[in-house]
Amino acid sequence: MDHAADALRTDLMTITRYLLKEQSRHLESRGDFTILLSHIVLGCKFVTLNKAGQAKLIGLSVQSNCVLVSEENEAAIFVDAPLRGKYCVCFDPLDGSSNIDYGVSIGTIFGIYMIKDKDNATLEDVLQPGTDMIAAGYCMYGSSCTLVLSTGNGVNGFTLDPSRGEFILTHPNIKIPNKGKIYSVNEGNARNWDAPTAKYAERCKFPQDGSSPKSLRYIGSMVADVHRTLLYGGIFLYPADKKSPSGKVRYADA
């Protein structure tokens, strides 16, 4: 590879260029949504540089938002009326943070809804079904910094190029393989699973049809486990058990 020539390329699809291209598909757009996503991208850059405090992340995009819901806060944050936008952002700022000391990949997860009435935002706006999301994604901080995003037109992955300070499109139009050889679950909780879940895990290890068993891979950071599942296929699950009867809303399968 000619790295010198690559450094001079001007045809790279940066995430900024991608967002502007997507915006151009909507003639009625005023750019608010693009600005909001750009601020989320900027926040992810600050996190990977360990400078999240400098970014004042909530303030960056507050004028595009009406409601902010964070996994780290008990209650939703309603933006003051004069500054309200038309979007609700739900996010986990640092999924897998308990793994930081071990150098394991962690990440930021986010989803965006349209507010039904920005003059009267309520919790109902953040309890809409996932099918009503207008964008969702995550940013994984590991050996590289990768941001995966969907705005309803496919799923695309961007990798941060430190030399440019830009996320570059490296995984266009991601599709989970039809078949996967990996299952990802915390088997330390197996004694608390219900019978169907335990039976499924047993079949992964000891298939009855003579096929090869699936390989167990479990990192304990949802972003990293889901990212692997998206690229290589398989299943990631966090099932209900006796300790958590409702399970957790974390599921990816192929």
TrEMBL record:
Keywords: Carbohydrate metabolism, Hydrolase
Enzyme class: hydrolase
Domain Fructose-1-6-bisphosphatase class 1 C-terminal: 176-251
InterPro entries recorded: FBPase_C_dom (IPR044015), FBPase_class-1 (IPR000146), FBPase_N (IPR033391), FBPtase (IPR028343)
Superkingdom, natural source: Eukaryota
EC number of the protein: 3.1.3.11
GO biological process: fructose 1,6-bisphosphate metabolic process; fructose 6-phosphate metabolic process; fructose metabolic process; gluconeogenesis; sucrose biosynthetic process
Family named by the database record: Belongs to the FBPase class 1 family.
Protein name: fructose-bisphosphatase
